[in-house]
Write a structure and sequence with these properties.
Helix content is about 55%, strand content about 10%. It has about 100 residues and is mainly alpha-helical.
């Protein structure tokens, strides 16, 4: 999965070490499996890759969505994009009590 994430990152992959990319992948996989309460299938693996890229992009700017310099304005991202959440919710196993 490391190579796929590097391909998706494109030229930006040079900004990250393999160890950092691998750590973000590991965290993304753990989040997806915990949320969905199942092992990864192909679709969930692709979502884990996207989440790993989001995590990499947030390194040293956790949650920062935009920043202005003249008027000193910042806004922050909360959570993941709606399309990722929709897929995770669709793949989630629900426990009946």
């Amino acid at each position: 999965m490391l190579e796929e994430v590097k391909i998706l990152l494109g030229d930006a992959a040079a900004n990250y070490t393999d160890a950092l990319i691998s750590l973000c992948i590991k965290q993304a996989i753990a989040e997806v499996e915990a949320y969905c309460k199942r092992d990864l299938d192909l679709e969930l693996e692709m979502i884990a890759q996207r989440i790993a890229i989001i995590k990499l992009n947030r390194v040293n700017s956790e949650g920062l969505a935009s920043q202005g310099f003249s008027g000193v304005s910042e806004s922050y991202i909360d959570g993941y994009p709606a399309d990722i959440i929709a897929i995770l919710n669709r793949k989630r196993k629900i426990k009946a009590v």
